[in-house]
Design brief:
5 strands, Rossmann fold, single chain, alpha/beta
């Protein structure tokens, strides 16, 4: 079976780096971007099963990213990873078509289970 492909998008550089590294160590093909526009540009060149997405980012925010993904790549699932201050926005993201939302800080095991569930796969 092909590895799960995940695009991590968050303006927190350290979070993106750490998440990509930890997912990669668990056999997930992960790539990170720190801006919504860069993430959308990257989706033009690479296929992903799931986008792990922050809501509050400078420039193109997560809600705008969700809307574009739903229109251009309807098979790509979105899981929101957000801080407590944006739970209302995360709920709005679900209304726009996000699979689920997780609140930071979150255990990696829960992130992995949610990513696999969003892709319709069983976690190893």
């Amino acid at each position: 079976m092909e590895p799960l492909r995940v695009l991590v998008v968050d303006d927190e550089v350290e979070l993106v780096h750490t998440m990509v590294e930890r997912l990669s160590l668990r056999g997930i093909k992960a790539h990170g971007e720190t801006h919504g526009r860069e993430a959308l540009d990257h989706l033009l060149t690479e296929d992903y099963d799931v986008v792990l997405l922050d809501i509050r980012m400078p420039g193109v925010d997560g809600l705008e990213v969700i809307e574009v993904i739903r229109m251009r790549w309807p098979d790509v699932k979105v899981v929101i990873l957000t801080g407590m201050s944006t739970v209302q926005m995360a709920r709005r993201g679900r209304a726009l078509g996000a699979y689920d939302y997780l609140v930071k800080p979150v255990q990696l095991s829960k992130v992995i289970r949610t990513l696999y569930a969003a892709a319709g796969r069983s976690a190893p």
